[in-house]
């Protein structure tokens, strides 16, 4: 009988209900049909379970073990929970995982987490809330995903520029001639030639970072970048020409800017020196006078 009604139920629910009531009038159709079961997928439409109004139908939930998903937290150059490397956690479907601590990175400001799904199944959500001055994040997983820390570089990170001027001996001193304490954006590229200053009598020669000669460098997040710039001392040539009454001259040559130069001349027989001093111009003008008239 069960097999008969089962086959008939699959073809016409109403006809089955009518026949069942007629064939076995003292047994409610709902009870008679309760022996037949069917499985319905999650969220599937459930219908045609009874042939009469107000029938009692028992539905039983079928449970299976909730799947597990992996959350990977990547500090992305920073430190989170005391760790620099990505950290992974496993949680069941629908469970929440709270990220109560905020990552830190020297020279940068944390701006939030970026959520990326690493599997094609399910969806995950990332939410946050503020409590007093603290910001908390929590993740609800329905698929494997990756949280990557997002950073904004600070705009007032320190760096130092030392300027070295060549000495009169042609060598550079060990102590800077001038030091500048500057600030800029973390990670920004600096062109050393653009940092050079204009010194009278000197020409920018080259720059070094960490003992290596370079043309560019970057601002370190911890503010420890030190840039050394070197300036060669200009050289100038002094030329002496013998005029009338001069037997010989000395002191001609090439000298560094700022060097003291001594020049001398030997007058020819029959000539004497005549020197006029112009202190307001800081130089001496020497005239030769023909004593022989």
Give an overview in words.
The protein has about 290 residues and is mostly beta strands. The protein is built from four helices and 20 strands. The strands form seven sheets. It has a five-stranded mixed beta sheet with strand order 9-8-14-11-12. A four-stranded mixed beta sheet has the order 2-1-7-4, with no helix packed on it. A hairpin with a 2-residue loop joins strand 5 and strand 6. Helix 1 packs antiparallel against helix 2. The chain is rod-shaped and about 150 Å long. It starts with a helix and ends with a strand.
Dominant shape: rod-shaped
> SSE order, as H and E?
HHHEEEEEEEEEEHEEEEEEEEEE
Approximate strand percentage: 35-45%
Which structural class is indicated by helix and strand composition?
mainly beta
* SS field, number of helical segments: 4
* Count of distinct strands: 20
Key features of this structure:
five-stranded mixed beta sheet, disordered C terminus, 4 helices, rod-shaped, 293 residues, mainly beta
In short:
By secondary structure, this protein is mainly β.
Chain-wise SSE layout:
Blueprint: H1 2-11, H2 13-23, H3 29-33, E1 68-74, E2 87-92, E3 96-99, E4 108-117, E5 125-131, E6 134-140, E7 145-153, E8 157-165, E9 178-184, E10 189-191, H4 192-195, E11 202-209, E12 212-214, E13 216-218, E14 226-233, E15 235-238, E16 246-250, E17 253-256, E18 264-267, E19 271-278, E20 283-290
Parallel strand pairs: 1-7, 8-14
Antiparallel strand pairs: 1-2, 3-6, 4-7, 5-6, 8-9, 10-13, 11-12, 11-14, 15-17, 16-18, 19-20
């Amino acid at each position: 009988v069960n097999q008969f009604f089962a086959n008939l139920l699959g073809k016409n629910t109403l006809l089955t209900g009518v026949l069942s009531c007629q064939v076995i009038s003292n047994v409610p159709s709902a009870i008679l049909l309760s022996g037949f079961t069917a499985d319905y997928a999650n969220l599937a439409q459930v219908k045609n379970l009874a042939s009469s109004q107000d029938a009692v139908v028992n539905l039983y939930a079928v449970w299976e073990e909730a799947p597990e998903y992996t959350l990977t937290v990547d500090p992305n150059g920073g430190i989170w929970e005391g760790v620099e490397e990505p950290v992974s956690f496993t949680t069941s479907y629908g469970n929440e995982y709270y990220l109560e601590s905020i990552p830190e990175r020297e020279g940068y400001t944390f701006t939030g987490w970026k959520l990326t799904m690493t599997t094609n199944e399910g969806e995950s959500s990332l939410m946050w809330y503020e409590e007093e001055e603290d910001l908390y994040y929590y993740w609800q997983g329905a698929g494997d995903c990756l949280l990557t820390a997002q950073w904004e570089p600070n705009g007032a990170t320190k760096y130092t520029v030392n300027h070295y001027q060549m000495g009169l001996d042609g060598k550079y001193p060990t102590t800077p001639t001038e030091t500048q304490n500057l600030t800029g954006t973390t990670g920004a590229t600096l062109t050393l030639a653009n940092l050079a200053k204009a010194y009278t009598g000197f020409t920018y020669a080259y720059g070094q970072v960490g003992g290596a000669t370079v043309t560019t460098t970057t601002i370190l997040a911890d503010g420890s970048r030190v840039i050394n710039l070197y300036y060669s001392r200009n050289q100038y040539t002094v030329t002496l020409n013998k005029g009338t009454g001069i037997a010989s001259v000395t002191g001609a040559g090439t000298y560094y800017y700022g060097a003291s130069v001594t020049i001398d001349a030997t007058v020819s027989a029959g000539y004497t020196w005549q020197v006029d001093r112009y202190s307001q111009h800081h130089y001496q003008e020497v005239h030769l006078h023909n004593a022989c008239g």
